[in-house]
Task: structure prediction
Amino acid sequence: MNIINGKQFIVCQLNSIDEITQAFLELKDSQFDRTIYEEGVFNAFIKKIAQFANTYVIIHKKNKDKETNSSYKNEIIGLISFYANDEEKKHAFITMIVVKNIWQKHGFGEKLIEIAKSNSLKKGMETLGLWVHKENNNGIHFYKKQGFIIFEQKESQYKMIKYLPPPPQTYNNPFLFLLFRPLF
Ligand SMILES: CC(C)(COP(=O)(O)OP(=O)(O)OC[C@H]1O[C@@H](n2cnc3c(N)ncnc32)[C@H](O)[C@@H]1OP(=O)(O)O)[C@@H](O)C(=O)NCCC(=O)NCCS
Result:
């Protein structure tokens, strides 16, 4: 459990359709683009990510009310859903990242990217990517700070990617190459 500013935060992986549905509904108001919530889209989207993606949430664990001895409902701070199953291209893909409005700019977005990065690396992925709306300036700024670069674009969106780990710069420098060259 992480303790930030005296508050307790835990990271949980969600697997069931019910848990994932609940988390997405709780974060709906904080989304930049709400098209996935449209009727006929939402259920199919949740079913797909429950089956193929990895979904993690950061939860603010609230203490018991000492007077009534009842527990406060834990609050979901943010969520990330990503695929790390393309073994051919070794490309992991973030299909959703969102931090609740009131908790933004506290470092939780960075923590969620860190979860996707380490998990994707463990599964042998070499790049991590996502699509972002061209008008989502906050999002683009955030991803650039996290080391993503614009890779391609379509009408209203950019595809941004990040190398996992970064490409080996050392080999551009012949002296460092001699130091770090493979032994065999
Ligand atoms: C994009 C998004 C996920 C970023 O999450 P976040 O939690 O705000 O991100 P972070 O806090 O990790 O970093 C954002 C900024 O807060 C700053 N920050 C990090 N920790 C901080 C702290 N403890 N105190 C103050 N600022 C902090 C970061 O340096 C960064 O600053 P910058 O504005 O100068 O770049 C969030 O804004 C969001 O959910 N947006 C709506 C949904 C969305 O657009 N999702 C992306 C769809 S593609």
In short: Helices lie at 17-26, 42-52, 108-122, 137-145, 174-180.
